[in-house]
Each structure stands twice: as C-alpha cells, then as structure tokens.
Amino acid sequence: MPSEFDLIRRHFTRPARHTELAVGDDAALLAPRPGMRLAVSTDMLVAGTHFFADTNPEGLGWKTLAVNVSDLAAMGAEPRWAFLALALPQADEAWIAAFARGFFACADAFAIDLAGGDTTRGPLTLSVTIVGEVPAGAAITRGGARAGDDLWISGQPGRAALGLAALRGETGLDAIHHAEFVNALQRPQPRVALGLALRSLASAMLDVSDGLLGDLRHLLECSGTGAIVEVGALPLAALAASGADPALCRRCLLAGGDDYELLFAAAPRHRAEIDALSARLDLPLHRIGEFTPARERLLLREADGGLATPAACGYDHFA
Ligand code: ADP
Ligand code: MG
Q: Cα(87) to centroid of ligand 2, in Å?
C-alpha cells in the first residue's frame, strides 16, 4: 500500500509556475501581483450527489477543477492557484493517476498551480479551493444589474442536463449527440477568456451551475431587479435538432444544471462590442431578455407574446 505521502508526491506534486512555495510544506506562499485582489472560491463534489461513483476518473479530475475555475471566470478573475482536498475510500493508484491526469489537464489549460491540499481516507469527496487575481475594483459581482440592461447567456446551456438524461437512458439519442452531451456534462469548459473580456462590459454576472432560471433568480436577488426572458431568443434549436424530446430540451435549457456557462447583464450600448467579442472568442453569446425594475420578478415571454411566471426551478440540495 502506498502511503499518503507517496500518493501526494507521485500524483499531486508538479513544478510550480508562479508560486513561491507550493506542495510539500506546512503552507503555500502565494505572491499576488501588485494592485490585484485575491478572488477565492471553494466547490465540493460528492460521489452519489454530484457524480456517479463509477464516473471516469480522468473526466472527474477535469471537472473537479473546472467547476471552480468557472466561479472565478464569473467574477472576471484570472485563476492562478488551486488547493485540492481529497477523501478517498482506498488508495487505488490507477484511479488516482487518471484523476490527476484530468485535473492537471485543466490546470495546464488555465495556467493554474496546484499549491497544496489534503489527502485522507473517507467516502469519495473532491474539494477544491481556487485562488485567482482581479484588479482592484474590476470584479463583476451578482449585484450590479440595472433595469434596462440586456440579459445574456454564453454557449449552449442545456447540453449537460441532456447528457445526464442520456446517461440515464431517457433520451434515445444517436451516438454522436449522446457523446456530445455527455462530454458537456463531464468536461465543462469554464469561460475564463469571456469573463476577463467582460470586465469592462458586464454590470453583473454569475456562472450557471444549477440551472439558468434558478441562477438568474440569485442574480435578481442580489441586484434588486426583475427580468423578462424571451423564450423565442433562447438557443433551443440546436438542442432540439438532436432529436431529443422538445419539452425535455426546453426543461434542460431553462432548469438543467452543470453547464457552467456565464449569465450576465450589460447595458444595451455594449451590444455591438459583445457581438464582436462573441466572434473573437468563437463562442455564441445570446441576448435572451432584459432586466426590469420589478424587484425579483422573473417572467417568461412565450413566442406568442404571453407572459408567465416560471415554475420553481434550479437545484437546492436541502429542498
Ligand atoms: P499537514 O499534515 O501539515 O496538513 P499534509 O501531510 O496534509 O500536511 O500535506 C503535506 C503537503 O502536501 C502539504 O503541503 C499539502 O498542502 C500537500 N498536499 C496534501 N494533499 C494534497 C493533494 N491532494 N494535492 C495537493 N497537495 C496536497
Ligand atoms: Mg493535512
């Protein structure tokens, strides 16, 4: 049996790119660049709650870090350092090596140093604390949306939830769409470049982890505004083209979790710049509604013009 220290040395110790002191001492030493604020976030993934225990470990390694990177993207912050706390039921070296491969693939994609962590025996639980930098005063919070702002969403929300439905055998998709949606679920792409570029454009932002409408409600609460979502402007066509049930596609788009797209508010004068940004990043950015003065009132405008309050949506672990 490898010891805890062998495991750490073998699988979680890599040369650091920009860390004064990383894995191996009692604490890491981080040197933020002058004028920067540290943006810090923690996310935990628990087997049976957030993923199936038999999930491919390499994909899991990617996702464990990627969901944390997404939180920094949503602040307009640049990810720099990660800390990894692992509870493992046993020292399965093949599993740990594959997990580490996925984790470091994501770390390399975003130039993140693994600067420390903790490793212990227990029910499979993966927790990352991520630390990033953002210039003082430049972070984009959830609280800045104003009535009259446009409501935007990046990419193709709904794919991850369709991937989950596909894994449960609920969709009857062809092999290509099955693979595409499962990949979206297991290998989310955090929108870091978008988050950084939106520093000067977005008035409020968050990443969609628990469903578009549910997370939008959080943003409305923090900003003290309402919103109208235009159903006709939602990117539903690409999902429906997969052949999945249209009602399921709509539900996945509006209330499915795990997409890690960015939802943001921006003044209408920025529309042309945001469209140009979409072209530059080769990432669709959809303008799907507007913010209103009606505090926390969320409405859907259907294609026929009718306004309706959406049913409860989003995921709550304790509801
Ligand atoms: P301590 O007993 O002081 O908490 P540990 O034995 O837990 O130290 O950890 C030794 C070193 O290895 C520390 O620098 C810690 O940050 C690092 N470390 C432990 N587990 C991990 C991990 N899963 N990934 C990265 N670094 C880790
Ligand atoms: Mg420890």
A: 11
- Say if ligand 1 is within 6 A of residue 8 CB: yes
Strand pairing category for 78-88 and 113-121: parallel
Which ligand 1 atom is the nearest neighbour of the CA of 23?
14
Beta bridge partners of 85: 118, 127
| Whether the predicted model's global pTM rises above the 0.70 cut | yes
**Whole-angstrom distance, CA of residue 128 vs CA of residue 131:** 10
**pLDDT tens, residue by residue, 246-283:** 999 999 999 998 999 999 999 999 999 999 999 999 99
Please give the Cα distance from 296 to 292 (Å, whole number).
9
Residue type, 277: L
Q: Where are the alpha helices (DSSP H) in the chain?
A: 4-12, 57-73, 93-109, 159-167, 175-186, 192-197, 212-223, 237-240, 246-255, 271-281
Separation in Å, CA 188 to CA 168, 209, 230, 236 = 19, 10, 25, 19
Which ligand is nearest to the Cα of residue 4, counting in written order? Answer: 1
- Using a 10 angstrom Cβ sphere, with 0-12 exposed, 13-18 middle and 19 or more buried, the burial of residue 191 is buried
Is the CB of residue 304 below 6 angstroms from any atom belonging to ligand 1?
no
- What residues pair up with 87 in beta bridges, in sequence order? 120, 125
Q: Is 268 in the pocket of ligand 1 (CB under 6 A)?
A: no
Residue 93 tokens, joined: 């070296």
**pLDDT one-digit tens code per residue, 16-53:** 899 898 998 899 999 999 999 999 999 999 999 988 88
Q: Is 24 in the pocket of ligand 1 (CB under 6 A)?
A: yes
Q: What does DSSP say about strands 202-208 and 261-266: parallel, antiparallel, or unpaired?
A: antiparallel
Residue 205 CB–ligand 1 contact under 6 Å: no
Please, which residues have CB less than 5 A from ligand 2, an ion? Answer: 118
